[in-house]
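Re: [ENG-882] Designed sequences occasionally contain unexpected residues at chain ends

Forwarding the minimal case from QA. Structure tokens:
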């Protein structure tokens, strides 16, 4: 464990930053969102603004899907909101790592997503400084690459063709799985993850979009509550 007296060592902080930079580069699949959003009926400018202000990946695709189906904007917002609720659970988990002052805390809240939470938790055993380094490096990197490539996708959709043919939509799930995989070696964590997956899968058959993810996340947090307090 790379800590001294509970504090992160410089090596641990550098390692967290390296991991964050690598994961941040996966934001290039924002090009897929930009293309899909425009193909769904949004203007390029609307797609770009949505990425900047609603930086939540899956929620953005949910909104675009409703728009493509001809649904009302309020329906799209509801679907996006349900999917984005899981970030509230992440914020509770990260509350001690996020800044205390209002403005930095507001900026940090924009970056509380799957990848940044996973990176922070992964490096938390090496001390709070390493966890924060992983969070901020991943968040800033993903936000930058996601928004830049959203612009490319939104304004270059006609020249690019079908973005799904590039396989960019699989980059984020693959990276997330790589982050959580080491924790699945523990029997308790693996059991909780399996239960959460089953709950989400079953609910996906009957519940609105976003509810299965939120329920699975709640199951995981409740199941691992003892572990976080220990």
């Amino acid at each position: 464990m790379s800590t001294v007296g509970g504090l992160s060592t410089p090596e641990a902080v550098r390692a967290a930053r390296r991991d964050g930079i690598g994961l941040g580069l996966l934001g290039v699949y924002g090009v897929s969102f930009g293309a899909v959003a425009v193909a769904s009926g949004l203007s390029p400018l609307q797609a770009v603004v949505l990425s900047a202000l609603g930086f939540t990946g899956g929620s953005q695709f949910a909104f675009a899907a409703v728009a493509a189906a001809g649904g009302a904007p309020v329906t799209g917002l509801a679907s996006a909101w349900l999917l984005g609720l899981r970030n509230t659970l992440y914020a509770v988990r990260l509350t001690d790592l996020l800044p205390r002052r209002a403005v930095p805390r507001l900026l940090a809240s924009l970056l509380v997503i799957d990848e940044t939470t996973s990176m922070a938790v992964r490096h938390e055993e090496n001390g709070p400084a390493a966890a924060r380094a992983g969070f901020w490096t991943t968040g800033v990197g993903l936000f930058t690459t996601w928004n830049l490539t959203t612009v490319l996708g939104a304004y270059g959709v006609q020249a690019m063709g079908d973005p799904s043919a590039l396989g960019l939509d699989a980059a984020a799930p693959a990276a997330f799985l790589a982050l959580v995989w080491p924790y699945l070696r523990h029997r308790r964590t693996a059991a909780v993850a399996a239960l959460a997956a089953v709950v989400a899968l079953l609910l996906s058959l009957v519940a609105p979009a976003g509810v299965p993810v939120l329920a699975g996340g709640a199951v995981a947090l409740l199941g691992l509550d003892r572990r976080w307090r220990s």
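QA comment: On inspection the terminal residues look reasonable. Residues 186-230 form one domain. Proposing we downgrade this to a documentation issue.
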